[in-house]
Amino acid sequence: MPAPKMILDKRIQTNISLCKKSNGTKINLQRAAQNIVELQRGLTGKRSLVGNAYMQQAASLQAYLLYYWPVSYAQTVAALQREPRFFEAVKKIADQGAARPIRILDLGSGPAPACCALADLAQGRGEQNLRFEFFLYDSSGDALSLGKRILESAFPKTARVETNVCNFENASKPKNDATGTGSKTKNAAAFLGGKKYDFIIASHSLNELWKNEKKRGEKVEAFLSAVCDQLEDGGLLLLTEPALLATSRALIEARDWLVQNGMRVVSPCLCPQAPCPALENPNATCHYQFDWEMPQIVADLARLAGLNRADVKMTYFVFEKSAYDSLGQDSNLLQAQEAAGPDFRLANASALVVSEPMLNKAGRIRYVLCDGKSRFTLSAKNGDPLASAQSFFALKRYDKIAIQNAQVRSQNGEPLSLGIGEDTRIFID
After folding, report:
1. What is the pTM of this model?
2. Which label site among 100, 129, 144, 315 has the fewest CB atoms less than 10 Å from its CB?
């Protein structure tokens, strides 16, 4: 398939062109950078913009389109290209024939970076002329209008785009048209129109719902329940949130609820059970971090705004709606480890790297790992040649590894700590 960056660069050029057409003037990068700083401050810290209609402001919408749109696009690609079930689901739909479009629901879509990325990834890997039906829901009619133009430009003659202005907190039932006009109803589940979707996305949108409400968790659960009812069997749900402590932990709590209510988390978790071990420590979280080759306009704006975009962070989960037990086949890994006994499980594990490398006072580099049931550490003396030969010091977040014959450095009431010894072997998936 074409390199993801090549496709993203093409999409960005379209976005720049749309910005120029919207105001008839050349883009002022300095002014755009100032708007990005204001937007960034409003979405972090006290998060004063969260839940407000900031996408209805032309300056904020342009700043989002030029700077955050490419980031959200890259996040969606990074999450889905790691999951084989995504490509299996695309192939299954494609095998049904050209008359069958892929139906994608984007909740809190903004100008549609996430579903554009999903469709680009599906189109590229499948090497087929796929058809798409996009259903965009957002509180901003301006953002929806822009997203519609982007998708119709990206997938000419193969896409149908439906936009719906919708306030999820008020259980709006939108009028299905391209103008973004909405009418309200008391039926909380009716806002999705009773359709079934192959893929449902909520990218950086759940955290903006029911801000500061005491029963927020219950309302999010009811919302997700209605959403999952509209997912086809075998369909996938992608939830992405900022990698802030509060937003990340809130998404992990939503993950646990979904797993306990029949959804199967297939990525990034190795053993999709609940509760997630990260919630045992109130200061712990779980997020993905990856390097990327910044598009030129993002690099220019980051420099002018004094922001760091050398890497991208997010918390995400991919769920599958399946008739199988919510633990799924991946639970075999955990069951095998448990059946082998505690001594074997301690020294032989399959786990996900969930931290950066950390140097302690004793001169050891350690990582936090998660095997789906607990979190523990794996360490080696800084510069150890055996560890270096196995690429230990090059491990990154969400690398999947298998460990054999690790040294048990501590347990018995303390957090488990493993070390690399002469007989230890690491295998990176």
Report:
1. 0.88
2. 129
